[in-house]
Amino acid sequence: MSRAARHHRGPIRATSSVIWVLVVLVCAGSMGAQPVTGNAAPPIRMVALGNSYISGQGADDYRSVPADTSSYRSGTIGPNNYCFRSRHAAVEIVADRLGAQLTNATCAAAEPRHVDQIAQFDEGRQIDHLERAADIVVMQVIGNPEFLNVVACVQLGECDARTVERSMAVLDGEQRRHEQRIHREVRARAPQARIYILSAPQVVPRPGQEYHARCGWFMSDREVVLLNAFIDKIDEISRTNAQLFGATFVDLDGADSPWRAQRHDLCSAQPWVWGPRLHAPQYEPDSLSLRNWSLGSYHPTRAGQSATATVLFDAIGLREPTGS
Fold first, then answer.
1. pLDDT digits (tens, 9 = 90+) for 260-289
2. How many CB atoms are closer than 10 A to CB 18?
3. Phi-psi sector, 19: left (phi>0), alpha (psi -120 to 50), beta
4. Bond prior to 112 in cis (omega within 30° of 0)
5. Between the CA atoms of 317, 25, 233 and 116, what dihedral angle is there, to the nearest 10 degrees?
6. Cβ atoms within 10 A of the Cβ of 58, count?
7. Among candidate residues 184, 110, 116, the one with its CA nearest the CA of residue 143
8. What is the bridge-based pairing of β-strands 101-104 and 45-49?
């Protein structure tokens, strides 16, 4: 078994803010499997694939400068690996609730190519940590590197529509096809796995929602519209591909989601998403902190990861037995 196949309580060396996110939670087509000996059932085998939204970057207890990185798994906060896998990530919470064995191959800043084509940092390809016996597969797609481009565009000046439209065109073409290839690869490697696709949470206010008090200094009405259109495109691609390959789309903006009960975007009174974070946990030192400024923002907080875990756990429980 590879190093990444260890239980989630130990550090995992597998591959992977925003924003291509793929989580593979692998839950057996039949979780009520035959016991190995006596009444003991084998543990559920989960695999998580994706980028920073699912690795848990941002789910730290940051109050200091530099940021406190104690909530992240050893070996994922540099200097050779910046995957930022948090103990408070939704997949870690769900694995604990299920009593599952978690292989966490997520990594901050991961792009689709890091899942099935090239290695990221010192971890190899994410897909290589998916075993045939995996039981649950969850994937979350946030659209890196295009999401990073759009976030930087908004935060570093008034973003023009053409920049966002170009990024959406890349999503609609290259990313859509690449995600489909990953679906096929996951099906081939773990044919009995149940696949769950996480949507994006509500990162920014929706058009018409008040935001000026908290975000008016860096976000305009036009940028709110552009960001919502971009995130809607990400979710449309994920939903369509989930339907195409028989996966379950887990909508974090659904009627029963804690994210929907009241506003928790980065401009709300109770944000579950970070706004600009100049001293956020991030990659190698940058004297200007520009990478931290743009890439350390727009990630779910610890409360946001907990809310995502609630929705994901309920989706799994509604569709298959989890044992007792």
1. 888 999 999 999 998 876 655 555 544 444
2. 32
3. left
4. no
5. -160
6. 31
7. 110
8. parallel
How many residues make up the chain in this entry?
324
CA distance 173 to 270: 36
Rounded Cα–Cα distance for residues 225 and 36 (Å): 54
74-78: which pairs have CB atoms within 8 A and are 24 or more residues apart? 74/11, 75/11, 75/13, 76/11, 76/107, 77/281, 78/283, 78/284
* Number of other CB atoms surrounding residue 143 within 10 Å: 30
CA separation for the pair 260, 281 (Å, rounded): 28
- State pLDDT tens for residues 173-200: 999 999 999 999 999 999 999 999 999 9
Q: What is the pTM of this model?
A: 0.83
Contact assessment for residue 196 and residue 136, using Cβ atoms and an 8 Å cutoff: yes
Q: Is the dihedral of CA 271, 274, 276, 278 positive or negative?
A: positive
Q: What is the pLDDT of residues 158-168, one digit of tens each?
A: 888 999 999 99
Q: How far is CA 6 from CA 129, 235, 309, in A?
A: 11, 31, 21
